[in-house]
């Protein structure tokens, strides 16, 4: 397939590349050059001046958690699977050709997407999000007894969406089990969270030795650990013990962000998820959610001020299929602190670099988030220039005129 007359956003360059053809073959960008000669049998696509972009990457997704809390706790695993299948197609039609799933039993969904059975993005699975007892993964109600001692898990634990582990040995088992299933990286929790019942935001979770156990096990598999963490102490405990990516960081202070920057730690923040209470939240959960939302502005402004570069793009949308339809509003929300180019780079090349940290556990062998020779052919054609007007990508149904993943066209609004 040969593309002509596109203005190319490479993922890294602020200036669009014009006057070049792009040849796609065998799922990759085979050649970028001027005036490529057409071979018989090639499909030629005239982009007519549209902007070509790498497929978007959501580096903080939860594709399995697209139902309200009451639905989640009252449904069987088949209901979860059908909801996730619908959500996967939503991600793809929003232009997200890749997601890093940071908590959920996505392994079977990933296999079926990769096999072409259902439509959806590439998935970098973490497997179950892992926390300590009383931590962010512990969704048991008061009617539940101790999960570790009496084997009485919550519904998300039962379906392996989350995991509760305590002590060095317990953490090793949980991490190794995730790798047994096919995890590309590991997600742990080192502070409280908004969606869990037992832990205020201010608590710090996992002792240093427990974090070290997760990191050591991941290192043996050639990959890395990311952590759910809101505040300084939880972030520092994670980073000091080998974690490479911090999710959220809403309440981080300047000194902690500087420490992360100096140590080449990834910052993986989200905005849109905090603009609305997830469905089914209790009043206590809503209060924690609001507290987390209140910290975003200062944290993002500080990251911009200190020149933090390793910033990934993510949405963290849970419980709400309607909000997932509007996931691309994340682009607009980030322009409060970053230029449209910076936001687009976060959603493409930078997040692609983060995914590549999975090393030999990377399920997709090739570069993502860029338009360059040899890269995987995840390509969008956009009606409008998001580097001038980021709002263009917030209307994907209207403005994404072509969505290609791995060289396969999943949507086209172009004249044939």
Strand-helix topology:
Layout: E1 2-4, E2 7-8, E3 21-25, E4 28-33, E5 44-46, E6 51-54, E7 56-61, H1 69-73, H2 77-93, E8 96-101, H3 107-114, E9 122-125, E10 129-131, H4 147-150, H5 155-158, E11 162-164, H6 167-181, E12 186-189, H7 208-220, E13 225-229, H8 232-240, E14 245-248, H9 254-262, E15 266-268, H10 283-305, H11 321-325, H12 329-334, H13 340-356, E16 379-382, H14 396-399, E17 400-405, E18 408-412
Parallel strand pairs: 1-5, 2-6, 7-8, 8-9, 10-11, 12-13, 13-14, 14-15
Antiparallel strand pairs: 1-3, 3-4, 6-16, 16-17, 17-18
Helix pairs in contact: 6-7
InterPro entries: Amidohydro-rel, Metal-dep_hydrolase_composite, Metal_Hydrolase, Metallo-dep_Hydrolase, OTAase-like
Domain Amidohydrolase-related: 52-404
Protein name: Imidazolonepropionase
């Amino acid at each position: 397939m040969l593309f002509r007359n596109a203005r190319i956003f490479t993922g890294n360059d602020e200036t669009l590349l014009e006057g070049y053809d792009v040849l796609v073959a065998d799922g990759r960008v085979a050649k970028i050059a001027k005036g490529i000669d057409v071979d018989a049998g090639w499909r030629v696509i005239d982009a007519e001046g549209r902007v070509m972009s790498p497929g978007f990457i959501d580096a903080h997704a939860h594709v399995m958690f697209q139902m309200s809390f009451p639905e989640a706790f009252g449904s069987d695993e088949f209901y979860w699977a059908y909801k996730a299948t619908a959500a996967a197609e939503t991600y793809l039609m929003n232009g997200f050709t890749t997601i890093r799933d940071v908590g959920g039993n996505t392994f079977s969904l990933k296999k079926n997407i990769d096999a072409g059975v259902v439509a959806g993005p590439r998935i970098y699975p973490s497997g179950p999000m892992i926390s300590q007892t009383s931590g962010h993964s512990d969704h048991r109600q008061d009617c539940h007894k101790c999960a570790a001692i009496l084997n009485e898990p919550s519904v998300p634990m039962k379906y392996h969406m989350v995991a509760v582990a305590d002590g060095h040995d317990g953490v090793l088992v949980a991490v190794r089990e995730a790798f047994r299933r096919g995890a590309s990286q590991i997600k742990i929790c080192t502070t409280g969270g908004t969606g869990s019942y037992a832990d205020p935001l201010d608590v710090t979770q996992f002792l240093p030795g427990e974090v070290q156990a997760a990191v050591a096990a991941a290192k043996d598999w050639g990959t890395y650990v990311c952590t759910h963490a809101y505040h300084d102490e939880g972030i520092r405990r994670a980073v000091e013990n080998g974690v490479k990516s911090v999710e959220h960081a809403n309440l981080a202070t300047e000194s902690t962000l500087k420490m992360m920057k100096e140590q080449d730690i990834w910052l993986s923040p989200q905005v849109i998820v905090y603009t609305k209470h997830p469905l089914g939240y209790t009043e206590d959960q809503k209060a924690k959610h609001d507290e987390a939302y209140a910290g975003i502005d200062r944290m993002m402004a500080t990251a911009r001020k200190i020149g933090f570069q390793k910033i990934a793009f993510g949405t963290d949308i849970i419980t709400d299929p309607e909000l997932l339809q509007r996931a691309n509003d994340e682009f607009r929300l980030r322009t409060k602190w970053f230029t449209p180019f910076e936001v687009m780079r976060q959603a493409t090349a930078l997040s692609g670099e983060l995914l590549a940290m999975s090393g030999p556990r990377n399920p997709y062998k090739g570069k993502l988030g860029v338009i360059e020779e040899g890269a995987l052919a995840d390509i969008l054609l956009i009606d409008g220039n998001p580097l001038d007007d980021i709002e263009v990508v917030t209307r994907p149904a209207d403005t994404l005129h072509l969505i290609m993943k791995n060289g396969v066209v999943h949507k086209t609004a172009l004249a044939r």
